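User:
Hi there, any thoughts?
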Amino acid sequence: MATPASTTELARRTHTSPATASHHTTVLRTAGLLTTERDGTGVRHALTPMGRALLHGTGMSPPAS
C-alpha cells in the first residue's frame, strides 16, 4: 500500500468484505505492520517502515522489546 487507504478501499482491492478487511487491519496494526489514523468519519491505514520492509523483502529487524 503505497499511500494510505480506507478500510473500504482495502476491502475493494482485496476482494473481501469491509468487516474482513477491518479484522485484518487490526491484526496487522497489532503486529506493528501498519498504522491507522482517523480521517473525518473514516480511517486511513498506512504501512509502517517494518511493514514496508516485510512487503518488499528488505530485511528490517523488528523493534526491541
Q: What stands out?
A: Helices lie at 7-14, 18-30, 49-56. The chain has a mean pLDDT of 90. Strands lie at 34-39, 42-47. The longest helix spans residues 18-30.
